[in-house]
Amino acid sequence: MSEWVSVLNYLNGDHVNQSALIQGGAGGLGRALVDRVLESDRFDRVFVTARDSSRIVSEDPRVVPIALDLTDDASIAEAAETIRTLTNHLHLAITTAGLLQDDATGLKPEKKLGDLTRSHLQRVFSVNCFGPFLWYAALGRLIRHRDPVIIATLSARVASIGDNRLGGWHSYRASKTAQNMLTKNLSLELGRTNPNAIVIGLHPGTVDTNLSKPFQAGVSPERLFTPEQSAGYLWDVLLNLTSEQSGQVIAWDGQAIVP
Length: 259
Fold this sequence. Notes:
By secondary structure, this protein is an alpha/beta fold. It has six helices and nine strands; from the N terminus they run αβαββαβαβαβββαβ. The strands form two sheets. Strands 3-2-1-4-5-6-9 form a seven-stranded parallel beta sheet, with helices on both faces. Strands 7-8 form a two-stranded parallel ribbon. It is globular and about 50 Å long.
């Protein structure tokens, strides 16, 4: 029996204060993941974060909106402390942070090494790599316990070193590859004290959101997912995880991505 099945059984029994956390749950894939978590009816509280918490619109009383900016250490500390006042443990934490381009600042995926700038590298790494794991560090005992827990961070197939055949997209690829290393490190660290902890990266496929819109031309229609489709696939992955997969990056179809 997988550890995540153990989590589901645990949450289906007599329980109180079972909590999930979705970072970036105000729209797109994050919002679809929030809906999946709520529909599962396995959590008493669902903490949902966004830079502007007023964008978190839900009439479900289980939803707790939290303001969080992963590029701001004070915001990270304040959000973590707010959650600590409301629950002792998290049993599911999903982080959806991702930055590929920003027209307002001229940030775009680099086609060649000469396109790199320090400011763009720092910004992409700050969102894709530093932020999620500084967030996990701030959560502290909320994820460092002996109950079953899953920590999942959205990654990308293009982060694979072994599967990189095209090059380019230097900042995005490298930031997500570094993120994957921290995923592996955290899986080993938590696993030493909690065999029921699973830490993974999730590749959601190409999702029809603002992040992917400029790059959808070459994607076949059957491989361009709505946020709801992708969230459904990722939820199925979570349902079927085993403890042996902790530290891996798993694609939407359940296949492990080569490091």
